[in-house]
Amino acid sequence: MSIPVVAALLIPTIYGLVLVALILRNDRTTGLFERLCMSFPLGMSFVTMQMFVLGLFRVPLTLMPITALLATEAVGLSLLLRKKDIPLAPRPKFPLYAELAGRGTGRKVILSVLVLWVLLKVGSIFFETSLRPIYAWDTWANWSVGAKLFYYSKSLYLDVPAGDYFGRGAVSRFLSYPVHNPLMQVWISLWAGGFDEVLVKFTSPMYLACAAGFLAAAIGREAGRIAALALVAIFLGSPLLSYHAVEGYSDFPLSVYLMLALASFSRALRGERDYWLLTGLFSAQALFTKDEAFFIIAPLAVSAMWHIMRTVTARRDRRKTILLLGLPLLFVAPWYVFKFTHGFGFGADSAKLEFTFHPEILVQAFMNVLSLDNFAVVPVLFPALLVAAGKPDRTFLHLLAPLACYILFFHLLYAFTPYYYHYFSNGTVFYRNILTYYASLIFLTAFLVRRIRDRMRLDPQPQPVGKRQRRSA
Amino acid sequence: MNWDLDQLLSYPPIMGVTINTVTLSPAFRSMLYFLIVLVFVGAMIVHVMRAIPFRRAFASAVLATFFTAAVVSALQADIGWCSWLIVDEQKFGGRTTDEKLAVLEGPLYEVIRNIRRIVRDDYALFSEDDYVRQRTEYFLLPLRKRERADNIIVLEDRLARFDPASGIFTRGEITIGHLKPVYAYGPNIYVLRKE
With a threshold of 0.90, does the pTM exceed it? Predict the structure, then answer.
């Protein structure tokens, strides 16, 4: 990886860090590491959305105008931080290091092994990314085609008849697919000085590193450090996830945005108001990554509204909270306005709104999960953990409901639409669809682990048999 | 069923084809289910012997089963991942991106590389193989494939015919004249240009 590519990855991270500092200005609980893990996904989407808007105004998509705009914004935001006396980042703490240096040999050994395992896996993902050029048909035919055309034409390819916008028709480029992924590849290419089949996909391991780090920190707070690191190792152990983390496809970035939206929502539900903004922003960024995000973001919005209506009684506060969640969704407005004013539709161009009925597909889906392929025991044992955790609390239900709707949505598509039935039957979509909510599933698993452990602590301790017998006698 | 360690610990290497699924070996799948039952039943027996209430015993056993099975499968997957790394390091390590693509695509990339040197404008492309047609189109970007163009690329298309004497190219109902060959890789792989 060359220095310009490192810069291409660092700039969105720094931009995102400034944004996180502004948004979480009242927050004292989110550490520097967790903020850094949110920064790259947040910043990257801001970069691509601005590239999209510049492209709409026919500003050439070259390094100069894009970087000038980003630099101006970064300076403006930094001045705002300074004026409002908001620190860019909280003072770094090293609780993991303190724990590793502390007492308790057994715990230290387990922690060290888990940390090493996670670090080696993340490092190996970066290494593998540097070895392989883009190889999957779905990646180059759907996404990299657009990126190449945008990069070489220095535009969004809009000065053509509307049917050919965004390079439609080249290889298998679909008109209605969001342009976040191709514009990420353009961004890397601009810094690398050319479209390089290896370098353009370096955003994927960045998403992976951020997701792993964020999960470690967020789950650590929920369920303890060992459980968190074990869950991250389990998360990284999915072979399909490893495939996607070294490729340039959009399912994995979507998975990260959905998880971040859900995780931010969990904090907002617990009364941390700043996190409403982040929930809205990550939701909007998921919508800018892939169309299917709508089918989790819509139930998430309903779940959030339900919570707000139930818990925020003052009308003014209620309106303010709704605005905190709703306004950031305007982030994705340029894309949706353009998409619908030009009649681009939803999903792949070849997908038509036709209906069929294949209930047998649900049995096949169940068998696919039982095969343990790709995600091992996580989806199989999640329901068992759900039962073991007992009656869930409201926070968990608010988080589970959008995810359940999303899973149901996919199964309805498989059973009722010929397009998805076809792609389910030929093995294309099922596991990839699971991948889009796999990170969220791991995040929710942490809640269950904590709940089970809490229950085990709260339940009455068993008494030795001898004592009980004596008492009854 | 083959229970040797190789099959238990391996995943198929990345073949450069799919990101749809990675299939688990049947031996490992069976072993994993066996492990799930073993840990769950074992944990339940231990808890019952220690007179732990059923609800708590069940929750604890499920938790132990989840972490044991998930960590074992993650370990197995990462051993498979290491074998991918080794294979890929031998295959791609120390090469330029262009060389890596040549390794990945084989002779097809060599042909496309040669065509890229010759064809400088939009082109018409004829091939019976969807993958070959789309991959070529992809590598030739930003040049675009058109219905009619001055450059005609033929890649393994048995329906295409070119008569060098008359300079006429035919494929089904398509007939194009005044063409000269500018590149040939084999009898069925060539590039023509309008004179």
Answer: yes
